[in-house]
Amino acid sequence: MKKSVILLFVVCVLATTVFAQSGVKKKRPLPYEYGRVLISNFSEQAGLPAVEFEHWFHRTKFTCRLCHVDLAFAMKAGGSSIRAADNAKGFYCGTCHNGKKGPDGKKIFESCSVPWTRDDLPKCQRCHSHGKVVKREHDFDAVTGKFPRERFGNGINWEKAENDGLIKLTDEIPGVSIPRPPMAGVKDFSISPTTQGIAEIIFSHKKHTVWNGCEVCHPEIFIGVKKGTTKYSMVEIYGGKYCGVCHGSVAFPLLDCQRCHTKPVQQL
Amino acid sequence: MRHAVLSTILCLIFAGTAFAQWDLPKNLPPDEYGTVLINRTSEKNGVKPAVFSHWVHRRKHTCRVCHFEIEFNFKVNTTEITEAASKGGRYCGTAGCHDGKAVFGHSEENCGRCHTGTRTTDTKLYASLSSFPKNRYGNGVNWVKALDEGLIKPLTTLTIPQADMSFDKRLRLEAEWQKIPAAVFPHGEHNAWLDCNNCHPDIFNIKKKTTKHFAMVRILQGEFCGVCHLSVAFPMDDCKRCHPKMR
Prior knowledge:
Chain A is built from ten helices and five strands. By secondary structure, chain A is of the alpha+beta class. Chain A folds into two domains: about 35-145, Cytochrome C3; about 180-268, Cytochrome C3 (Alpha-Beta Complex), CATH 3.90.10.10. In chain A, strands 3-4-5 form a three-stranded antiparallel beta sheet. In chain A, a hairpin with an 8-residue loop joins β3 (about 190) and β4 (about 200-205). The longest helix of chain A has 18 residues, at about 1-20. The longest helix of chain B has 18 residues, at about 1-20. By secondary structure, chain B is of the alpha+beta class. Chain B folds into two domains: about 35-150, Cytochrome C3 (Alpha-Beta Complex); about 170-240, Alpha-Beta Complex (Cytochrome C3). Chain B is about 25% helix and about 5% strand. Classes of the chains: A alpha+beta, B alpha+beta. Chains A and B meet through α1, α9 and β5 of A and α1 of B.
């Protein structure tokens, strides 16, 4: 018996090494799927489908910072262990989704109410929609049709959309956000890759702080604020660390090498 | 008993990995090599599949233009090409391509020019390649040389200028088997056609010393180098082109 267990284990290990890396292109999400997050800490136990959160719609209205700093949403799907009761008390989704008016004067539908009954199901399925055919209130093409286009990800140049005033982002919620002084200008800087011959990276603080403030990245993702303190490699970034925390799942994906590696190689 | 069953499964798995599909794909006529028939929804909608000849297009555009800028996937029928998208300026209908100005567009009289349902559509044009440097396999053309000698000047970009692609590290990939000479990989010759992202990190991760994964068996099955070098780029009948010391 014991032997067969060991054998089975060996087979499993071999199988994982054989299939660990597949040398073909991965399927890319479609523009409206990019940035979709499945949240299922307790949903399925409670007999509800997982929550499908659409980053694309929320980022037409709010900065990243608002949800990921002020509302304490973790950066990893399921990392916040949100319970229905939390939402009902006005935390997490319930901060905005409380049946009251949002910053633009439109009523925002209420999230989880406790206790819920079967009659509430159509309401629940507005978010708990994974695997269900739910007609969304906001259609991707209708909302983003006029936004400046771009390759990859959502196919939208979010930065330009903001600059052009097509989207106006809320960065603070009175009573929730701590008032912050306006951010001082922070400098752009270049980073030299460790492999010779690869174009240098230009990191634009300005572009990042519009959405993120300081706290989304510092000090948890990038320790300290001194250049060179955090050492990282492209392999780690592809693995979802450092820049890869956002770029690859929500912000423009890591397909567009030359968007960061923009500066011609310095001739020695 | 259980022991025996498990050992059999184990043997089968090994046998499967070791002896699976060693044959190279059949050599197509040179004018059909790299020609695909796109039929994701065509026939379902009562239209003949659309023909796409890589060799016709690569005279004028590098792989990068279509597979990076225009976002065509590498595998046929996996890109959501629709008539509406093409007419709206995406995919085949991208500005500067089949937009009705640069080249014939998506108006009704042109449907039949691509939706032919046959790979031999562009055969007549093939004579235009007769002056190109020869290659034994594939299209019968050494595309790398044709580019070097300036016989073709394919566009590398449509809208977004290409950044520094001068990275030209040559890799020496030791073979797994004894007596097989190492394979040589030139970044430069690939960069002339491709964007970094066409290969990295999906097909080849960028971890150092992971070439062990690139077993020839898997390449022959269409992974790694085999993503392109079985169907579009020069086929692998030509061992010496990568393993130059092969006798």
